[in-house]
Amino acid sequence: MSFRLFKRLRAMLGCGLAVAAVLASAPALSASDTLRVATEGTYPPWSFKDASGNLQGFDVDIANALCAQMKMKCQIVAQAWDGIIPGLQANRYDAIVASMSTTPARRKQVLFTNKYKETTSSFIVAKDSGIKDVTPAGLKGKRIGVQRGSSQHQWLTANGYDKTATLVLYDDTRQPELDLVAGRVDAIIGNKATFYSGFFKRPESKDYTFVGPEFKGGVLGDGNAIAVRLDDTDLCNRLNTALDAIMKNGTYEQIRKKYFPFPLM
């Protein structure tokens, strides 16, 4: 089979069984292996460190559930977002479970499993800001806070916000919220479910509100999935099988209800 045909199959089927059959000779992980997982670690409620420095959160629980389903040990590490794909490519870990959006650009760098949740993005502003229009023209001259390298950062740039407003970039998701409250930025954009279960659960959020429509698709991606290396089709298939199992046996819903009162799929 030619490499061009292989790439076409992979594009159509992701890490489906047809591609796995083509790569049947690739080395497979045994049931006793340790799955090395990277997550972001500063992105509550998806992944964060508790007072003892232990990783917690929805993505951490999902990773542990998948490892248990595959009868593998889980080794989960925190990795800064802008280096998370390079770390995977450098073989520092085997999979990324970090609410990563399945954008077209990322599909060229990693192989995604089936999605395990949907995602939408929204702006937040102060209630008394007078901001109603969140188009590039509507935010002209404003300062917009966003996590560096995130899909929302890419979306802002792709839609010309960097030409009308000042993009203020952060290495995590909490700092933009703090700067919004402190008045150092006029608006922030990020994952709506994250804002709902994090920022809007804290007292300082009472004077702030979502504004404008929800955004999804395109560079914001088609939901969130687990990323593995482009040639790691065997692991991708095993993760898909495990994902299907935890969704059918109720484990996924138990984890979801622990963090969110609303469905994620």
Your description of this structure?
It contains eleven helices and 13 strands. It has helices at residues 3-13, 17-22, 58-70, 84-89, 104-107, 151-158, 161-164, 174-182, 192-197, 233-248, 251-259, and strands at residues 34-39, 42-43, 47-49, 55-56, 73-78, 95-101, 111-112, 121-126, 143-147, 166-170, 187-191, 208-215, 224-228. It is globular. The chain has two domains: 3-118 and 221-259, Periplasmic binding protein-like II (D-Maltodextrin-Binding Protein, domain 2, 3-Layer(aba) Sandwich), CATH 3.40.190.10; 121-220, 3-Layer(aba) Sandwich (D-Maltodextrin-Binding Protein, domain 2). 35% of the residues lie in helices and 23% in strands. Residues 34-263 form the Solute-binding protein family 3/N-terminal domain. Residues 1-20 form the signal peptide. It is found in: Cell envelope.
Record keyword descriptors for this entry.
265 residues; alpha/beta; D-Maltodextrin-Binding Protein, domain 2; 5-stranded mixed β-sheet; 13 strands; disordered N terminus; SBP_3_CS; signal; Solute-binding_3/MltF_N; Amino acid ABC transporter substrate-binding protein, PAAT family
TL;DR of this structure?
The protein has helices at residues 3-13, 17-22, 58-70, 84-89, 104-107, 151-158, 161-164, 174-182, 192-197, 233-248, 251-259, and strands at 34-39, 42-43, 47-49, 55-56, 73-78, 95-101, 111-112, 121-126, 143-147, 166-170, 187-191, 208-215, 224-228. The protein is α/β, with parallel strands linked by helices and 265 residues long.
Q: Tell me about the biggest sheet?
A: 5 strands, mixed
Number of domains: 2
CATH class group of the largest domain? Alpha Beta
What's the shape?
globular
Sequence stretches where pLDDT stays below 50 over 5 or more residues:
1-12, 17-28
Number of DSSP-assigned strands: 13
Oligomer description: single chain
SS field, number of helical segments: 11
Straight-line distance between termini: 37 Å
CATH topology of the largest domain: D-Maltodextrin-Binding Protein, domain 2
Strand residue content: 15-25%
Rg, rounded, reads 19 Å
In the sheet with the most strands, the strands line up as 5-1-6-13-7
H/E series: HHEEEEHEHEHEEEHHEHEHEEHH
Family: Belongs to the bacterial solute-binding protein 3 family.
Main location: other
Domain Solute-binding protein family 3/N-terminal: 34-263
Subcellular location: Cell envelope
